[in-house]
Amino acid sequence: MRARLTGLTIAALVPSALAAQTNAGDGSDAISNEIVVIATGQSTASASTKTDTPLIENPQTITVVNRAEMDIRAVDTVSDALSYVAGVQAQPQGNDNRVDEITVRGFGAGGFGSNNNFVDGLRLPAGGQWTRPAFDPFGLQQVDVLKGPSSVLYGQTAPGGIVNLVTKKPTFRAHGEVLFQGQAFGDLDRARLLAGADVGAPLSDNVAVRFVGLASHGETRAKDMPNSRYYIAPSVTFRLGADTTWTLLGQYQRDEGASTFQFLPMRGTLNASNGKYIPLDANLGEPGWNDFDRNQYLVASFFEHRFGDGFAIRNNTRYTKIDSFYRAVVMGGDTLTACPANIPGCIPGQTIQRRAVQGRGESEGWATDTQIEARFATGAIEHVVLGGVDYFHTDWSHDRDGVAPALVLPLLDIFDPVPRGASGYAAALSPQIYGGAVSKQTGLYLQDQLSVGNLRLSIGARNDWATDNLSNSLNNTGFRLKAEAFTWNIGGVYLFDFGLAPYASYSESFLPLQNDPVTNATGQPFVPTTGQQYEFGLRYQPPGQNIYLTLSAFQITQQNLLTADPAGARCGPTLTPCQVQLGEGRYRGLEFEGRATPTDALTLIATATRIKAKVTEGAAAQIGNALPQIPDWQASLFADYRIKAGPLDGFGFGGGVRYTGDSWGLVSNDPLFAIPSYTLFDAFLRYDVPDSGLSLAVNVRNLADKRYVATCTATQACYYGQGRTATARLQYRW
């Protein structure tokens, strides 16, 4: 039998936790590495440098959330997994089961509005409006958060950072896990069930296999929004000799049912309407016209061969295909304050107009990255030189139709919503957006990591060539965007013997924009945004103590931001406000993240983030304004206490608190869009049955079921955050 989890192996800060997770986890050698990451900084997140570099020696700020932490907190989305990471805001646009919206240092790093999506170090394809990937955390080994510009190794990315998901892969040790889980939401009157399995074993000294699978079905956080998920991921690793490994991985994920995303009115969410607020579990759409179905396929290859004398070659390649189908009835304006005569039953302050849409999309992409690594010395200087070429190709199409407005009946009471029906919708669709894109990126990069005594230096450079061909089949138009950029970075770390490691770095980013030139006041394509970051930090990991602390200060500047045309011109056939590219934003921040085990039974995670982001160039009325949807403060504290002796041996309990500060919904800083702060509480109780491999746990997220607004981007576009979620788990490991 496998030993039970002891201590907070989420942070894995003590040698006993290391032993426990090695025995109680999934049997992978990588697990012991992840544990040491948090404990000593002496392990690696290979995505940061694409080499096996200890995190404490890296001049980039990095956080790793390992498998054990995800299990302890019973996370069911990638966003949940990152809730206790400094500089990261999870679900910045509220509860949405279609995708994981994430921001890092104020910039998108996942979701519909971002192209910073990476799995196993390879970029995922973009897609149309709703055709984006999502990953169940049960299939992940860890999540790496690389903070700051990462363009030198990864090409076109935003300057805030990237989130890299690391999938489970075979190991040469037999292991297994079975998971049964039940969830309830809000007042615990809606339930969801999940069953999962993770089994792996060596078939011989040279072949190992692994299979991960799950199925879930049930209700969600709002009423009448049931959905299901099915996930399978087989993989096999071959040892082709002592110095060569080759891993093949397949993955299929099917999501079907309803979407939890809703546009909500400002009156009734951010502000009371008739003295009341919309309940967290309200469904303002139509159950008969709410679908989000997605098929997601991945096939990947990971090859490595090590030559003699410190040389190695690696190739990572993946093919991804996604297709989606979406239907929704959403807001058509803010809550009506006066009732027109043509809406029978209208209630002032409680009735809303609505609209209905349908969309289909497909996206497929290839990503490949070939690297050559050389380790050698020139006198007293040791080098790890990495050179590589990567290529990315994506091809997507998206069709969106609207239902005839006369058929979409208003919702009469937002506080007690009653469906009005979707009769005739399917026969009354008309095209709104029919488009697609073919995008390509090729990058050449070179990096040298130097070691001289206790000093670590890193310098890297990259050149990118990117092409985007966009088409609009409704008006038979298209345009081509070409971009080329050189980016570089430099950084250093000094390792003091007593555990202090100051570091500093400079890095750059570039990100092409795929906006239609018809929205540009000049009629020309938009140029890529560019970014630069200066960062200074301190890491502290005293020898022999289970403490790992990081404090960093950074400034990010991003150019070529889009802003509304100061002249107020309107563009295109719909006469929407024109945009011009004259903006610049500056993001100054402080981050603290600490993980420690002050006693053998207690583990703590503490984070704090302060970001002051403002417009430094742009329309005169906006200069000096705070950039939108960036909280001024964030902080969190998580604790895990375990009883390790006596009659209660095996019991553990803990919880956390998460604070998100004030923010603005719009760059205009209109007081109407001032988003207030909120504080959320989490808790858990766990019992690891001694010497059995069996664990039982109950986790509650947002314990008080606090109603809060994540942000508002228009009077008819406010978003509630996640309400109370109670999760009961039974896990058996061997």
TrEMBL record:
Annotated ranges, domain TonB-dependent receptor plug: 55-162
Transmembrane segments: none
InterPro entries per record: Beta-barrel_TonB, Beta-barrel_TonB_sf, Plug_dom, Plug_dom_sf, TonB-dep_rcpt-like, TonB_sidphr_rcpt
Every TonB-dependent receptor-like beta-barrel domain range: 239-703
NCBIfam families, sorted: TonB-siderophor
Entry similarity comment: Belongs to the TonB-dependent receptor family.
Protein name in the entry: Fe3+ siderophore receptor
CDD domains named among the record's database cross-references: ligand_gated_channel (cd01347)
Main location: membrane
Entry's localization field: Cell outer membrane
GO process annotations (BP): siderophore transport
Alphabetized UniProt keyword annotations: Cell outer membrane, Ion transport, Iron, Iron transport, Membrane, Receptor, Signal, TonB box, Transmembrane, Transmembrane beta strand, Transport
GO MF terms held by the record: siderophore uptake transmembrane transporter activity; signaling receptor activity
Signal peptide: 1-19
GO cellular component, one term: cell outer membrane
Pfam families: Plug, TonB_dep_Rec_b-barrel
Membrane topology listed for this record: Multi-pass membrane protein
